[in-house]
Amino acid sequence: MKHAFSKIVAAGFAIMSFAFPAFAQPSPADLEHDEIRIETSEGLSLSGYVTRPIRSASPLPSLMLTQWVSCGSIAPSPERLSEAERIALASNYALIRIDRAGTGKSEGPGCDKLDYNTEVRHYREAFDQLTQHAWVDQARVVIFGSSLGSTTAPLVAMGKPVAGVVVQGGGALTYFERMLHFDRIQLERQPDFRPEELDGEIRRRMEFHRLYLHHKMMPDQIERLRPDLRGVWQSLRGTDAAPHYGRPYAWHWQAADQNWLAAWAKVEAPVMVVFGEYEQFERRHGHRVIVDTINRLRPGSARWLEIPQAGHGMSLYADPYSAFLFDGGVRQHDVLVEPVAQWLRGLS
C-alpha cells in the first residue's frame, strides 16, 4: 500500500509540500546517557536521564519529555530508539526525561497511584534539577509533550525559562470534552456501527462523565445513584486497565479541574502542535485551538503540523477505521521526526 505524504499543513492555514531528506538510520549506539537522581519535595528519589548524541559538544539545546498517561518506564533502551530519541538525534539536542514515581528505579507508591497534580509538580522539580546538567544549555530547553503529556507540557512550562513547547496527540479542550471526543470517535468508528443508537449513547456518556469528572464520583457510586447509567463505565475506553488507563480516579478528577487553554495563553515561547489526520482519541479542533489561540495573541508564534494518514502513535493507516482498530499501521519515523527536528533546529 502506498501512502501519499505530499501535504503537510503548517504555520497557520497554508498547505505546503515537504521533501523528507534521506539520512542514515540512527541506532542506540549513536547516543550516550547519564542517569541522575531527582529529589522531590516530599522526599522521593526519581530516576532522571540526560541523553545526547555521542561526540557532541556540551552544553546542547535540550528537549524535555512529558509522558503519556499509561504507566511504564521510559529509561533508555540498548535495543531500540524512542521517537523522542530520534528527534533529539536529528536536531542535535540533548533529551531530558524521568521515570515517574513507582516506575523503573524511581521511588514511590506506584504510577497507578500517582495523581495528576503530583505528576506535574515532579516534572517541574525535575526541570529545575536536570537543566543544571553539564550537557544542557539552560537557556535553550524545549518541552515535548506526547499524548496526554501534551496537557502537562504547558503547566510544566509555566514560569520556566523555556525556549519552546512542542506537543503531539493532545489538545487544550477541557478534559470533559476530551473524554467525550474519545467516546464519539469510539462509537463512530467501531465495526459494530449503529448510527441510530449513537445519539442516545452519547447522551448517557455525557451524564456519566458529568458525575464522574465534575462531581468526582466513583463508577459504582454513579450506578447506585443512576441505575439507568449501568454499563457505561465498562463500555468506556481505558477501563480495562484498572482503575482508568491504569491511573487512579484522582488523576482524572484533577485533569478535569485544569484550565489548559489558559496555561497555553501564558506560553510566550514558540509552539508547535502536531496532529495525525486519523487520530484515534481527540479530534482536530482540540489540537487546533492551541495554535489559533496563541497566534491570535502573538501572531506567528505557533506552528501547525498535520501529518496525513497518521494515527495517535504516528503509524500510518489506510483509513480512519483501520486506524481506530490499530490495523495494518505502517511506521515511517521521518514523517514526524524530520519536520519537528527542522523546527527545533530553527529555534537553536
Would you kindly provide a written description of the structure presented here, covering whatever features stand out?
It is a single chain. With 348 residues, the chain is an alpha/beta fold. Helix content is 36%, strand content 20%. It has helices at 83-91, 116-130, 149-157, 175-189, 195-214, 219-225, 232-235, 249-256, 260-265, 284-297, 320-324, 334-347; strands at 7-9, 15-17, 31-39, 45-53, 60-66, 94-98, 136-146, 164-168, 271-276, 302-307, 315-316, 330-331. The chain has an eight-stranded mixed β-sheet with strand order 3-4-6-5-7-8-9-10, with helices on both faces. A two-stranded antiparallel sheet has the order 1-2. The protein has a two-stranded antiparallel sheet with strand order 11-12. The two termini are 37 Å apart. Mean pLDDT is 92; it is low at 1-23.
Q: What is the terminal-to-terminal distance?
A: 37 Å
Order of helices and strands: EEEEEHEHEHEHHHHHHEHEEHEH
CATH C-level name of the largest domain: Alpha Beta
Helix count?
A: 12
Low-confidence stretches: 1-23
Oligomer category:
single chain
Shape verdict:
globular
β content, as a range?
15-25%
State the helical fraction: 25-40%
Structural class: alpha/beta
Tally of structural domains: 2
CATH-defined topology of the largest domain: Rossmann fold
Biggest sheet, in brief?
Answer: 8 strands, mixed
* Computed Rg: 20 Å
The CATH architecture of the largest domain comes to 3-Layer(aba) Sandwich
What's the rounded overall pLDDT mean? Answer: 92
Q: Strand tally, please?
A: 12
Q: State the strand order across the main sheet.
A: 3-4-6-5-7-8-9-10
- Tell me the CATH superfamily of the largest domain: Alpha/Beta hydrolase fold, catalytic domain
